[in-house]
Amino acid sequence: MLHQPPIWFIAIAFLCALGPLVFLHELGHYLAGRLFGVGADSFSIGFGPELAGWTDKRGTRWKLGLLPLGGYVRFTGDADATSRPDAASLSDEDQARSFHLKPVWQRFLIVLAGPASNFVVAILIFAAFFLSFGMPSSPPVIGQVLAHTSAQSAGLQVGDRIQSIGGRTIDTFDDIKRYVVLRPDQQLVIHFERHGIGQDATVHVGSSVVRDQFGQSARIGLLGVLPADREWHRPPLLTVLPQATIFTFRLTRWMVDGLGQILSGERSVKELGGTLKMAQMAGQQASLGIYEFIELVAVFSINLGFINLLPVPMLDGGHLLFYAVEAVRRRPVSLQAQEWAFRGGLALILALLMFTTFNDLGSFGVWSSLGRLIG
């Protein structure tokens, strides 16, 4: 079993992972705003008091904040970092550069550019990996059925080609693992092809508590099948970006599955991790090597893009929802409604931050240690 890396190493690895992703996210907003002639008053990595910064010739203040847990671009016409419209009157010059006076479709694209940048980063990382090391290629064909497992009980056989599980289309053997691992102790219908004939089997997915190389445990679903020989091949240059895009989409769908199970009560809310858990993962992967760390950065980038697309006020998804409503109603949502929505969104985000921090500390054994001290 590997030892946990020291706290200083975890902190540095986390900042090295999150900092560039936040910068590229905000850069997406900034460049899209530049494209449509929107002025930017400030570009900040981190919140709170400014630690360092400089002002460019366009009047944009580029700065580093004290709390490096996010960032923002404050466009001309924004009241604050959450991009609420400023009720104060603007000069004619500022009106021409104001974000909130641009057509709704331009504002939509400017906001969308941030999360889109994170997905693009992940796609480029995976494309570079595929070109450098090749990409795994395993068709969803069973190469081995393990004894005393769910697959054997359901009558699955070597050579069966799995086409769907629980109604979800299966394209590769990795899709089987990603779908099943999130569904321990569930009944699933597997549609497969045997000798050219389609068949269905109902499987009760097994479960097991596994520990990773750092000693952390998790309950996962087990089917009990192994693939045939895994092949690695470097895709042609013209197809590597589409392949990386498909791979990124599958990982995103896996995240959506996991979140949906937590919201529906199928999985415990204790599995929700926060900033501290992300920092620990960054430190662990960095201790394994540069390639493992870069792979985690790609996953973090997808996570950042996905979370920001959630329709929660204060997040990009909340703004996109407002702009969609504005496009349908042909008039913007009232400032009072936006104000209440932003307050509710802030309360939700703070509550989620506190909850996930509580979970993170629990996963580190803090609460059990305190319980033993008190007892």
Question: Characteristics of this structure?
Answer:
375 residues; alpha+beta; Pdz3 Domain; four-stranded antiparallel sheet; 51% helix; 21% strand
Describe this structure in words.
It is globular and about 75 Å long. Helix 7 (275-288) packs antiparallel against helix 8. The chain is built from eleven helices and twelve strands. The strands form five sheets. A four-stranded antiparallel sheet has the order 6-5-7-8. A two-stranded antiparallel sheet has the order 1-2. Strands 3-12 form a two-stranded antiparallel sheet. With 375 residues, the protein is α+β, with helices and mostly antiparallel strands.
Main sheet? 4 strands, antiparallel
Strand order of the largest sheet: 6-5-7-8
If helices are DSSP runs of H or I spanning 4 or more residues, what is the number of helices? Answer: 11
Strand content: 15-25%
Distance between the first and last residues' Cα: 30 Å
Helix/strand-derived class? Answer: alpha+beta
Topology order in helix (H) and strand (E) letters: HEEHHEEHEEHEEEEEEHHHHHH
Q: Could you say which overall geometry the principal axes of the C-alpha atoms support? A: globular
Q: Let me know the number of strands.
A: 12
Overall mean pLDDT: 85
What would you report as the Rg, rounded to the nearest angstrom? 24 Å
Unreliable residue runs: none
* Helical proportion, percent range: 40-55%
